Amino acid sequence: MKLLFLSTSVGSLGSGLGGGVELTLKNIALAMMHRGHQVRVVAPSGSVLAGIPLTEITGNLQIPAQTQNRKAPICLPDNSVLANMWEYARQVQNDYDLILNFAYDWLPFYLTPFFSRPVAHLVSMASVTAAMDRIIQQTIARFPVQVAFHSRAQAATFGLADSCRCLGNAIDLCEYQFCKNPTPNLAWIGRIAPEKALEDAVAAAQISGISLRIFGKLQDRDYWEKICRDYPNAPMEYVGFLPTHELQQQLRQCRALVMTPRWVEAFGNVAIEALACGVPVIAYRRGGPAEIVRDGETGFLVEPDSVTGLVEAIKRLNEIDRDSCRRQAEEEYSLWAMGDRTEAWFRDILGIGIE
Ligand code: UDP
Q1: Which residues form a coiled coil (predicted)?
Q2: Distance from the CA of 210 to the CA of which of 36, 59, 61, 324 falls in 20 to 30 A?
Q3: Nearest ligand 1 atom, CA 265
Q4: Which CATH code fits 173-332?
Q5: What mean pLDDT, rounded, does the chain reach?
């Protein structure tokens, strides 16, 4: 197949502004290329994507949907990179069999019926705005095979839990090294933004008296400064936003990953990255992480928004065998497994059987 992948328009690839979509796009592209398919990625200028053909498009970035309220109208800036990317896709569409959209934006969904080539959508977030809900529901009603989600919990936020295709997600397991004997430190990884509720992990670290190492893009500086003011004595260290190979070197040495999303996390790439290093995951029982973590076996699922629950789970970490964490990642989240699921989806869209 000849595949054209359109990235998120909220940031260039490698910037961290795109969150998990950046890694997801890279891994699906690699999985498809390993199978002999041709892939080209279209992304905002300044993107870095080693080993994958890339077309960079200039223009102004989109505002991330998760920073907006439910009734927010659809907005595009002047000289919108999103619009420019889709104009490029329109011009070259006949060179491809299928176009895959990774952007959580209204425009690509709206444009779907106007393209002569099939446009597939991998929805990267749960329901955030009414306008996005409507266009996703309309697209799925008209093109039921062309929309996929990462988790059932995510699809349920659009009222689509039963009828949807769930792809899960995957990582390149070779890039993550198992670590049997960690330091006592805890890890927290993600965009530093209110929907990720870093403050709960900081509070749990303070009560437990265990250091929390924080990795991720500082997306909302005011939010971060408030956490620093509210917890001046918490045992925490902001390490920065690291590329995958450096991130995993640090993550693997941690005793557990603490995941505290306030919103319904569509999937939670960081959970499978931790498991791949043998790091147990303590997460709220909500959204994607609740479908990933095997409670009591590869981590703990905790009452949502309960700092006490996090603290209790931290106390029980010695019950978890780190080998079973790595094993789960190998069984469920390999690129090969993701390639199978994605290829089956594309074949359904194109109406072709297995060769
Ligand atoms: N990440 C990274 N370096 C860091 C911290 C995070 O590359 O220092 C990446 C991480 O690998 C993951 C993404 O940021 O792919 C966060 O994705 P996730 O699905 O957990 O959350 P999202 O940001 O999409 O809400």
Answers
A1: none
A2: 324
A3: 25
A4: 3.40.50.2000
A5: 96
